[in-house]
Structure formats: C-alpha cells, structure tokens
Amino acid sequence: MDSRVVNKGQLPELLDKLARDHTLIAPVREEENVTLFKKVSGASEVQLDYITSDVSPKGCIFPQTEKTISYTYTGDTLEMKEQDEPPKTVLFGVRPCDINSILALDPVFEGKFLDTYYLEKRKNTVIIGLSCSTILSTCFCTAFNSGPCDGKGADLMFTELGDKYYVEVNTEKGSSLVEAYSQYFSKGDTDKLAKAKEEQAKKLEGQFRRKVDLEGVKQVLDENFELPYWDKVFKKCLGCGICTYVCPTCHCFDIFDYVTGEFTGDRFRCWDSCMFPDFTLMAGGHNPRPSRKERVRNRFMHKLKYHLDRYNLDGCVGCGRCISKCPVNIDITQIIKDLKEVGQNA
Amino acid sequence: MHNPSPLTPYPATVTKIVDETGDVKTFTVEFDDPQVMENFGNKPGQVAQLSVFGEGEATISITSAPTRGKFLEFSVRRVGRLTNVLHQFEVGQKIGVRGPYGNWFPYEMMKGKDLFFIGGGIALAPIRSLIDFALSDQYRKDYGKVEILYGARSYNDLCFKHDLFERWPNCPNTKVYTTLDRPEEGWDGHVGFVPNYVEEVNPSPENKVAIICGPPIMIKFTLAVMEKLKFADEQIITTLEMKMKCGIGKCGRCNIGSKYVCVDGPVFNLAQLKQLPPEF
Amino acid sequence: MMDVIQQLREQAKKLLEEKKVEMVIGFGEGTELARTTPVFITNPEEVSALTWGPLCANNLVKYLIDYQNLPGNVAVVVKGCDSRSVNRLLTDNQIDREKVVVLGVPCSGQLDWKIVAAAVDPAAKLKGFSDDGESFTVNTDAGDYKFDKKEAMLHKCLVCENPNPVVSDITVGKEQPVKNYEDRFAEVKALEQLGTEEKSVFWDKQFSRCLRCYACRNVCTVCTCRTCVFDQMQPMWVSKRNNLSENTAFHLIRAFHVAGRCVDCGECDRVCPVDIPLRKLNQKILKDLGDLFDAPTPGSEAGLASPLGEFATGDPEEFM
Ligand SMILES: Cc1cc2nc3c(=O)[nH]c(=O)nc-3n(C[C@H](O)[C@H](O)[C@H](O)COP(=O)(O)OP(=O)(O)OC[C@H]3O[C@@H](n4cnc5c(N)ncnc54)[C@H](O)[C@@H]3O)c2cc1C
Ligand code: SF4
Ligand code: SF4
Ligand code: SF4
Ligand code: SF4
Ligand code: SF4
Ligand code: FES
C-alpha cells in the first residue's frame, strides 16, 4: 500500500481545486448543532472538526429522492427518458463507520439486478476518508471489524497527525487522484506517520465507552423469531422514521410517479422505512407486520441477522446515530446486550 | 447498446381486454419492440411490474404461459389507485412492463408427475401460467394427469370461464372441478368451499404435486386437508404475496425473515414455508 | 428530588397493588447518564424502575392514545406542560377521563440532555440531582456537574407558564414557582422583525433539510388522526419527494393542523433529528391566537375550546 503526506496548511487549496474539477461533497456545519454532507464550492464551507454527521453521507450515492425516469405519455405514444450520467464526485471527510456502511450497501445494489442508479454514482465517486479524533459515547464501530482510523473501503484515507495529514492510498481511484494533484501529496516521512497513526488508533480504541460484544447474538435470533423480549422493547417506540433515515446502512425505498403536466411526469424513488405502518400494508388491508412490535423486531432483525444471512456482512456499522437520535432512547447496544442475556438464559 | 436501468419499464401496448368478473379484467399486452419479448424469457409463476404512467407501478403475476404466444396476459383486480385507472383502459393504450421477476414453479422437478391445482378467486391467475404450460402441445407429454379444482364465491366471481368450461376440459387427460361457495340459480355444479371439495375429490398423493393458491383463509384450511390426505410438505407448492415495489431485491419491503419474496419467491413449497417466520 | 422519586414509586405501587390501574407509564433510567426512557410498569414489584429529575423531557401523554385501550386503567407521570396535553386530549374526546390516573409532578425545568452528555464523564454513574433554583447539579461518582438553568435548560422551560400540572389526580412533590427567564415570545418577535425575503431565506434553509421522518408528528399529542394526510396515497396531498416545495407544504399543513390545539409542550422541536425549530412556528401561531382572540395556551384550562374551532361575534375577521 502506498502512502503520502498532505500539509495541513495546504488542505484548503487542495479542496478548492477538487471542488473546481469535481462535484465536491463534504461535511458542512448547517446550524450550530447540525452537520450534514453537502455539495460545497470550496474549502471555506467544509467543517473538518465534526465528529459524526447528523445524517449519514449515504445520500451522495443513494439520495433520499431520486428521479428514475421522466415520461411523456399521451395515451397512444409513450416516451421515457432515463437519468443522465452522474457527475464525477469526490466525497471528502467520511468517517470509518460511514465508509464501512457503503461496503455494506454495495451487495444490496449489486447482484443479479445491477442497480445502475447506485452503481454509477458509486463508480463516479472517489471516497476520501477521515480518521476520527474524538469518540462519542454512542460510537461502537469497533464491534464491527472497524475502528476510528480504519481506512477499509476508502479510496484515500486521511489521518490528522499534528500539522500533517497522513494519507493512505488504498485503491486505483485514490492513486489517480493523488497523481492528478501530486503537488499536494508529498512522499514525506510516511513510515514515521504510519507508526504515529497506529498509536493514535490504539489510544482512541481505549476510549470507547460502549463495549459491544456480538458473540452469540445472531444465534439467538437464528433460533428465536418469537421472543417475549420484543413485547417489552416496542412499547415506547413512536414508529417514526428517525432511526432508519439517519442510519447509513438502511436501503429501503419506495417508488411512485409525480405528474408534472397533462402528458408528462417523473418517476421517483425515495427512502422509505420499515418503521412506517404502510411499508407492508397490502391490498385488502392485510399487513404482515401489523404493529410496532413486528416493525421494531424487523429493524433489529435486519441489522443483526437478515443482512448477515443475505450478504455475509453486518447490517450495522456502529455509528451510533440511531442511539443519539431516537427520541425515546431505544438503543441498539442495549438490545444487543439484552439479546445476549436472553441467549444465555435460554 | 443502451443499458436500461433495472427500474425502467419497457413500453408495451394493451391489445385485448377481457372482463373476468365485476372487478377483475385480463389484459393482453404486447411489447412495442418485439425483440424485448424474445429476450423476456418468463417462466410460469413469475411476476412483472406494470406501469400505468402517472399512477406508478403494481406487481402482477404473469398469468399466461410462455408457450401461448408472443404476448403477456395479466389478470388484475381493481383495488386502488393504479388498478382503478388500468380498469378504465381501452385497447391500444400504452403501459410499461418490467420483469420477469421472482422464481418459478419447479416444472422440471414436476416432470412425469400428476398435477393437482387448487385455486380460489383471483388466485387462479398465478397458477394459470403453469396449467397452460403443462397443457401446451409442446410439454403435455412431460406431465401425467392434470386436475384443476377451482372455486369462487359466486358464478360471477369465477375468473377464466372460457378456460374452465371450454379450453381445459377438452385437453387430454385433464379434469376440471369447479365449485361455488353458495348455491345459485342456474348453477348445477358443485356447491361448497374449496377445502371441503378437495376432501371430497380425495386426490391420492401418489406421484402427485399439488399447487395451491388462494386467499389466506382458503390456504389455511386446504393445507389441513392436504395433510389429512397424506401429502408430504415437499409435494405442496404455493405462491406468496407481499407488498412489493422494486421486484429486484433492493427496496427491502417484501422480506419474510431473510428471504425476499420478489427474488427468493414467490413460489415456495410447504417445507420451505415452514422454515420461514410466520410473518406473511 | 430523591424524595419525589420515592413518593412516585410508592404511589405507583399502591395504584398497581390496589388494581386501580393496570399500567403506570413513567420515566426510567436511560442507557446513558444524561437520558431517561419511557417505562411501562405493570408489576408492583417493578416500580423501582421509575425515576424523576431534570432529564425527563418526554411528554408521556402521547402513549395514552394507544394504551388507554388496554383492559384496565392507566396512570401516567406528567409535568406541568405535559398536563396541558391531558386537557387537550380530553377536550378532543381522545381519552376517557375515567380510564386515566394523572400522576402530576411539579417541575422546575428540564435540561437539554445533549448539553449534559457533552459535559459529564461518559463512564460516570448517576447518583442524584439537586436544584438550587437557578441551577441543577448532577451528582455522579465521578464528581458533580453544575448546570445553569439559563444556559442548559430547554427553551420551553425558560418561559414555562405551568410548572405545576393543570390537571392531576395524585400530585407528587412541592409546588414550583412560575419563573419567566425571558419574554415568552422573544424569539418569535425577533423573527417577525425580518423582512419577507429574509423570513423566506430562514425557513427555506430549515425546511430544506427536513428528512420527513415524521417524528415531530408521531410524538405530538394533538396529532391523533387515524389516517394522517401525509400518509394518504389517494389523493396524495404531499408526495414523498423530499424537496423544498413538498417539505414546505408538509410543514405548513402540520403547523396549521395543530394551530389552536398545540399545547406548546415542545416535543416536536426536541425530537427533530436535524434541529428544525418547529416550536418557533407553533409559537408564532400561539402568539397570534393570543393577540387576535385573547386565547390562552391550549390545554391550560379544562374544557378550553380551540379558538379556531368556534365562532364568536367578537372575532377580528368578519368573514361570514
Ligand atoms: C407476487 C404478487 C403477485 C400479485 N399478482 C397479482 C395479480 O395477478 N393480479 C392482481 O390483481 N393483483 C396481484 N397482486 C397484488 C397487486 O400488486 C396489488 O393489488 C396492486 O399493487 C395494487 O395497486 P393499486 O395502485 O391499485 O393500489 P394502491 O392504491 O397502491 O393500494 C391499494 C392497496 O393495495 C396495497 N398495495 C399496493 N401495492 C401493493 C403491492 N405491490 N402488493 C400488495 N399490495 C399492494 C396498498 O397498500 C393498499 O392497501 C400481486 C401482488 C404480489 C406481491
Ligand atoms: S427512532 Fe426510536 S421511536 Fe423512532 S422509530 Fe426508531 S426506535 Fe422508534
Ligand atoms: S443501526 Fe444505528 S448504530 Fe447501526 S449503523 Fe444504523 S444508525 Fe448506526
Ligand atoms: S428493513 Fe428497515 S432496518 Fe432494514 S434497511 Fe429497510 S428500513 Fe432499514
Ligand atoms: S415547560 Fe415547565 S413543566 Fe414543562 S418541562 Fe419545562 S419547566 Fe417543566
Ligand atoms: S422531526 Fe424534523 S426531520 Fe423529521 S419530519 Fe419533523 S421536522 Fe422533518
Ligand atoms: S420488492 Fe423490493 S425487495 Fe422485494
């Protein structure tokens, strides 16, 4: 693996250049307490000292609302227009958990039916990761083979070390970008920085408050669909969409038409949530997941079992967003702990 | 060549409309580009997503067998937004079709066996593709006796009357049993619910596969009868319905446990069904 | 505050033991020091799960809408502002007074849990709270943390009208004085000063980041429609597209739908995952209703009709 050094003082210039040549998406401080990934026109808009963005950056590849086709239909003539190719994009400043989540989403959109909407954006996007330097009390990425400085899945991984960024070049895409902007990426003393990064990672790993152990949890869920435990958990759930909309690995969507004129319209796909009652409501009024109990169970089953069954990858990356955002403190780490206990007492 | 995204439908034209019952119509649909039909490759039991532009999409079983010709048939019940508008359609109007999606009836495994079809109401639609497949000139020799037991609430609720009373009874080694839930003036056929009629007909499980599709309550009682008749779980095949949107295993809503009905189903045998959590 | 917890538990135990209620809905310890979580207690042996303090912001009255349909009665722990929801639901015939036991707790303010979480050692264990009137002290095994009310309290508490529940069957704890730390509508007045263009810039920025997660609706005690217009597919009043125009339609419909019924409990504002200041919208309407109709805060008195739900000859607009 190749590595480089970027001087901190030169980062703004690099970001300005990236924004000039690409669509640059980076963390932006939207309000005092809100950080979101947005398109920026230069370094001055980028917020580098954020910890976890309020909504995950998955929307850059899987937008909340996306036009799939436009149509003109007059009754006897029909024309359809597909999406244009997505622009060349650089997604800058992504934390390890969120990079990991893109790896968890990939197999959903790959497979027998290639989801070109996702895959073309994925192909056209260079992901530049940014190691964490602060661990929130809700973070638990280490439970999922990741960590605060883990660059797995990033094309380039930046780690802030003193007045420098240590940059790991992980992929072809990353290395082409380094070449194109080579004046900013020096060879420098990368060995020393690599060591410093390792030390930093170790130090940070000691700061996690949530020690989450998944051993045996999937087995409990494999063996038990019905558990009295679910009767307890769901009671306080409000059935809102927060936990699924902020989650970087949720991928559910709805498809519908929006009429724009007498003969014209657009078809969209939009994020949807398994916590909403109409998600599974069928013609005739039958609903296979009729109450919040089944819906809460489905969410945790998906995160902790179904995704593993289908793709052999964890359905959660430990970003902690659903924990800090849930208005009633439904906490996936508590659920994991409780399920483990259920398993041990069985 | 242009590679359409998996959610883009192919343009098609409605070429024939048959009124089946008060709220079910069968639409014959032909793709505007004949090449699309050549490559479509639908197998009996699969579904498609129909687009009515301005209304969205609906998952509908392909009720015609590929052996029938270069068209697709869809029997659609009027239940909501899209299906209401589709029912106003006239021949010549355009719709969109994408698919085929899902697995299909294991017709290879059924070779050499007798087939016993059981259907209720509009749920004859998904199994009709297999009936026609097995009764086609090309494949008839691969299957033994074909029996079709079908019921509805009233005579007017019987779908595919032409098939039931004219086409199928005249096929070789084929028998059709029809029943109505309640007696009705002018009906001299069988009266009674489907599960009871199955018990009366008393099919032997010997070298036979039963294909069942109907409303949940009918399925429930019919399965009890099949068990009594000593059919093994592997000999009983059904197709499931869940709310679907994408049809391609991405949108996440049609799951039963880890399985997506749109890609891992809709066809399951009873043994497989018993492995799934009871959430459908 | 510790004695309030003790009394709450005793009362809950009694209610359950005497079968006066089947369930007590209250606050329990959360998964982090700075958080509490709703608890649903059916067994008198489990009342020790109940807690109370300045980290109990949730309005539990929402749960009555669902859980009053259980066999037996339900008791619910309410703060002053929450109690307005009880009145409101009674007026709307959404709950049956006979089935509900209100466990009222006078309240001296609720802290913003995020401010507390950011200040305390995440490994610390909570020991208790104290309140000297102007600040809360959070006592933990890792030391005490003092929070000035003016800085760390939720805005609704700085301008609280009803620290003491306006409806209560069993009141636990000492009556609290009304203290207005600032003009109740100061923020709204500041917004009113902006020009049309500036207002639109302000709200466009807010609405454009709405996720349409509908948490603000789901948490709201006056959102009780069986099928919400936003879930209706036929006709589709507001589509699922997330863009400024649909989001704005959502927000305006929501605000006007709760106008005259919103009890200003601030829950929508609290739960929003992207900090959209929904309370400012609601408060603007509240202020106008006060100015135009002399209407008190909905729910602050029993049986108050909604000023927009009735006609009086003295109304400012003579539209009929
Ligand atoms: C595998 C499968 C095969 C099907 N085969 C047929 C068939 O051969 N003939 C037929 O008439 N119908 C079939 N259906 C049902 C059909 O998909 C729905 O009736 C149709 O989508 C309703 O569309 P609508 O716009 O008219 O209704 P809407 O106005 O969208 O909704 C009316 C009601 O139908 C529910 N609904 C919406 N979309 C679906 C959906 N995709 N699946 C189930 N319920 C839905 C809604 O929640 C609502 O309760 C099948 C469904 C599945 C999953
Ligand atoms: S965020 Fe919390 S309350 Fe909302 S649906 Fe998720 S678990 Fe339920
Ligand atoms: S389930 Fe929660 S913690 Fe896990 S990835 Fe999703 S939002 Fe993050
Ligand atoms: S099923 Fe639920 S938990 Fe799973 S991806 Fe969809 S919305 Fe998220
Ligand atoms: S508004 Fe009043 S009653 Fe409500 S939490 Fe704040 S101080 Fe307590
Ligand atoms: S809670 Fe916030 S993000 Fe969610 S719908 Fe309401 S305003 Fe929008
Ligand atoms: S219909 Fe989308 S996953 Fe099955």
Automatic annotation (TrEMBL), chain B:
Query: From which source organism is this entry?
Result: anaerobic digester metagenome
Q: Which gene encodes it?
A: asrB
Coiled-coil stretches noted in the UniProt entry, renumbered to this chain: none
Q: What are its GO biological-process terms?
A: pyrimidine nucleotide biosynthetic process
This one is known as Anaerobic sulfite reductase subunit B
Domain named FAD-binding FR-type: residues:
7-107
InterPro entries under this entry?
Cbr1-like_FAD-bd_dom (IPR008333), Cyt_c3_hydrogenase_gsu (IPR012165), Dihydroorotate_DH_Fe-S-bd (IPR019480), FAD-bd_FR_type (IPR017927), FNR_nucleotide-bd (IPR039261), OxRdtase_FAD/NAD-bd (IPR001433), PyrK_electron_transfer (IPR050353), Riboflavin_synthase-like_b-brl (IPR017938)
Q: What is its EC number?
A: 1.-.-.-
**MF GO annotations:** 2 iron, 2 sulfur cluster binding; flavin adenine dinucleotide binding; oxidoreductase activity
